Structures are given as C-alpha cells and as structure tokens.
Amino acid sequence: PTGSVLSRLKLVVQEPQLLMNSLANLLMSMVLFGAVYTFFPLYASSLSLGEAAIGSMLAARALASTFARLPTGLLTAKFSSATIALVALALAMMGALAISSTEIALLLGMFLMVDGIAYGVFITASQAAMTEFSSPAERGTAMGVYSTAGSIGGAVAPFIFGLIADVWGLTAVFRVTGVLVLVGHCLLWYAGLRQRQRAAMGCS
Q1: How far is Cα 151 from Cα 143, in angstroms, rounded to an integer?
Q2: What is the pTM assigned to this prediction?
Q3: Around 152, how many Cα atoms within 13 Å sit in the side-chain half-sphere?
C-alpha cells in the first residue's frame, strides 16, 4: 500500500547513516559521471593524447575498479563499511585533484586508476552499509533512495561541470570536483562524528 511505502521512505530519510551514505553516493557519482566519464577524455585529448591511449587508460581504470571490490568485501566483515566508503570518497577526491595537476600521460593513467580503485571500494562498502543500517522491510526503499541520490549526482554534475569547462577550462572541472567532494566529505565526517557523540551520550 502507498501508506506503507511512504512510512518506509520516512524511516529511511530519518536514519542518519542511510541518508549520509546516499549523499556520499551523490558525491561519488559526480566524480564518476561528471568528471571522469564526461570530461576526462576531453581533458586527455586536449593534451594531445590519442584515442588508443585514452581508451587504454579508461580500460585500466575499469580493471582497477573491478579488482578492488573483492578485498573490499572482505574488509567490510572486519571494519565499518561506512568508514571504508568515506575513505574511498577521500581517495576519489585526491584522484580528481591529482589529474588536474599533471599533463604527463603515465601519471594521468595512474591517477585514473586511483579513481577506479576508489570507486570499486566505495560502491562495495557503501552498498554494504545500506544493507547494514536498514531492516529487511525497508531495504528496498533504502536502496531506492541510495540509487536516486547517485542518479541526481550523475545527471546534474555534467551540466554544471560543462559550464565550468566553458568558463575556466577543462582543468578547472577536476579541481572543482575535488573541492566539492572535499567539502562534502568534511560535512559527512562531521555529521558522523556528531551522531557518534549523541549515541555515546545516550548510552551513558
């Protein structure tokens, strides 16, 4: 029934961990679809790199992302999946800033692989976190909110970054991406810290 769907959605939105994890997915989608998939080929091409080189870099990134997922799944059994996801988000932020700081093809490829590792770790840990912090009854709704947040980031970021590229150039896209993720990461970290403090006070 519609009422039960709305009630589950309300529960998900009111759960801080689920909401923060969804916002983190929005930020990561900005990096992936806004900066990497949309503007990295253009940025690399502006540095006179050929299609074969760019394609090889993207393929290496995809492999790095895939290979990072299995060990991450094992790590979530021992460490907080939400914490691992935040670490991966920070790694993606550093990768975006690093890409904007070099014009050397080898380094670009390495930094793009760092981004791939960050995404592989993030997507595995963040999905585990959604499962960890939601009950079976609300899990479908939780994943829907999570996916919607990612879709918003992936849809809005290319448009915004396109305007930035037109005004300040392609390098600025990756710098702005890094700064936005840094700000978002700090806010998520602070929100998580406040939540842990409130939980500790509630237990005392």
Answers
A1: 12
A2: 0.89
A3: 12
